[in-house]
């Protein structure tokens, strides 16, 4: 297994998940 | 860099660890009739100067020890507990002159703050939380997170202390519909918080908004994992877990700590490092503590083992001293010391 198995990586994951999650 | 398959740390490591990596600095005995349950280091303000102090907890008494010039320790404050026994010390970073403790029998029933009144320096204790408390952790910026209750009736709360440990503010986080067992702050993202749950999920919160951002299911091979440390780098979440319930396997021996990499965007994860017992060592993890890149564990054999997570192998073994098994191990937050304790109240401080 490698990082390729983890799917696309985003440096701004925290901000992106916060904007997608219900308030 | 791509992360290749799981490395196994600690096998065989007998010829690679360096016994001199832990040097005894000082020791003292906490004379108490009850069993020693925890030890911690903290800053305590005395006459305007902050001193690195040691906190010891027995079932019925918590004591604060200040350093003297000659590597000796002097007991300066003592708090007594006659009704519910002490289970653990809950260090709260960035708060001075306040110790939080969890009390209960098998499970946590109360969280109390221990402090001294400024006038006569007499010891006081204040009840902060009570109920069926499943997890508690002190966070940076004078915050304390706790989960109370189970499943749908669960409340996840953040309490913020004032600088002097006094007045407080409370905020709720969105609870997951599964019981949270442990919390970990995320280094590199100051408003992120992780939790591990009873059904082997890692949940991620936004501490500022209270939002539940993601659930990540991790490998079912180890149940009831405890999260000791988490950091975010290059868009990935690195999580150090321990596995108190892990069974010995033929391939890896006894796994004690595991470094897991999670992509929070996709909820995919992969194990990259497994810290196992060195050859010739038997037993499982009793309790462990991780600070930066070093992980320490008390094993059921009574020995303490230390792993370097960057080197990827066991770097020190501390066998029982004076025929007495170790029962506690904590990294000091005030310096690079390892605090090791025995049930009868002996505390040994090692420089790492």
What can be said about this structure in brief?
Chain A has 23 residues and is an all-alpha fold.
Please give a structural write-up.
- The complex is a heterodimer of chains A (23) and B (352).
- Chain A has one helix at residues 13-20.
- Chain A starts with 12 loop residues before the first helix and ends with a helix.
- By secondary structure, chain A is mostly helical.
- Chain A contains one helix and no strands.
- In chain A, 35% of the residues lie in helices and 0% in strands.
- Chain B is mostly beta strands and 352 residues long.
- Chain B has strands at residues 7-9, 23-29, 36-46, 49-58, 61-67, 73-80, 86-90, 99-104, 108-116, 123-139, 143-148, 155-161, 168-173, 180-187, 192-197, 201-206, 212-217, 226-233, 236-242, 255-263, 268-276, 285-291, 294-299, 304-308, 313-318, 328-331, 337-341, 346-351.
- Residues 1-5 and 10-17 of chain B have low confidence and may be disordered.
Rg estimate of chain B, integer Å: 20 Å
Low-pLDDT runs of 5+ residues of chain B are 1-5, 10-17
What oligomeric state do the depicted chains represent? heterodimer
How would a textbook summarize the main sheet of chain B?
9 strands, mixed
Structural class of chain A: mainly alpha
Shape, principal axes of CA atoms of chain A? elongated
Please provide the count of β strands of chain A: 0
What class, by secondary structure content of chain B? mainly beta
Binned strand content of chain B: over 45%
Largest sheet of chain A: none
End-to-end CA span of chain B:
30 Å
Show the largest interface. Answer: A-B, 20 and 29 residues
Reading the helices and strands of chain A in chain order gives: H
C-alpha-based Rg of chain A, rounded? 11 Å
- Amount of helix of chain B: under 10%
Contiguous runs where pLDDT drops below 50 for at least 5 residues of chain A: none
